[in-house]
Amino acid sequence: MIHARGLTRRFKVRKGSVDAVRGLDIDVEAGQLVAFLGPNGAGKSTSLRMLTSLLPPTSGTAVVAGRDVVSDPAGVRARIGYVGQKNGSGENFRVRDELVTQARCYGLRRTEAHRRADEILGLLDLEPLATRKPGTLSGGQRRRLDIALGLIHRPELLFLDEPSTGLDPQSRANIWEHILRLRELHGTTLFLTTHYLEEADSMAERVVIIDHGRIIADGTAERLKGDLAGDRITITVHDEPGAARAAGIAERIAGPGAVTVDGTTVRLRVPHAGAALPEYLRSLESSGVKVGTAETTRPTLDDVFLALTGRSLRESDGTGELSGGTGGPSNRTGGSSHAPGDV
Ligand SMILES: Nc1ncnc2c1ncn2[C@@H]1O[C@H](COP(=O)(O)OP(=O)(O)OP(=O)(O)O)[C@@H](O)[C@H]1O
């Protein structure tokens, strides 16, 4: 459904140029739900705009829904839907009229446009709002209308640029319910950017992480977390000499780079804590190290980004939103305060 090779976009700016996307290679099969993650300025929107034919690439190729984005942009646009970051509706028409007008723009005949508007109002649970003006809708309702507008011509592939950003948790859950229903009912291929790591983790079957215009990770959330971040085991022992011995044993299991000591706490990163913890506890016991507490934590997608770049995607306020990504490498090994999941 999407086949991009070496897709690149350079913007000229006053003091030179910005390489927003540097050689994007991606293949997305029909029916997949792909979450595209990355810090602010990583190149997500620019990639989406090129894949949707809204922005010509500086170099590279992309075939989307069977059409080339450069030589046949109209063919691409007829087959895809695009829900941008900004609202797609105007202020003055009523909701249903917005949908009918959009359908007419895509060439549907009058009767068919009305029929499709009603169908899509039902699909997005917008029927009770059909005669309201978009300006009077709540943020979540308005976002549903944006998605409805993107779907009016029954695209095989829908691009969504941050569909849930700025919404309260309930509205975000509601938007996701509709996105997943769409996929279940119509098998629509979905390619979306999101700032919410937990959403990408739990909803998308494939996660693609972009940083500085390049894809740095691509796979299922489970595989990325297992391969690139790993589970954490945290134990506490009674004294610092005991911690030093526990760390030595941990290094035999996990390797030297995967173990940190903080006072009487020892943390190690392993591919599967369920298998490694019993082995570790047995080794500690046979070496005479007394363990106070032991716990395991699953990694997050933020841990994956951290393992790859040394930076955190997460804002410090704990919302799970992506941060600006401009901070330097975090000191994750020597600090005294560790969030769950830190090594
Ligand atoms: N029209 C433009 N002119 C100059 N630079 C641009 C333009 N559009 C984007 N950029 C730059 O390209 C880089 C990538 O921007 P892009 O909007 O694709 O990032 P993003 O990952 O979508 O970020 P965000 O999460 O903030 O939406 C940034 O450095 C941005 O400033």
TrEMBL record:
It comes from the Bacteria. Keywords: Antibiotic resistance, ATP-binding, Nucleotide-binding, Transport. SMART domains: AAA. One of its GO terms (molecular function) is ATP binding. Residues 315-343 are annotated as: Disordered. This is ATP-binding cassette domain-containing protein. It is a peripheral membrane protein. Residues 2-237 form the ABC transporter domain. Transmembrane segments: none annotated. Signal peptide: none annotated. It comes from Streptosporangium vulgare.
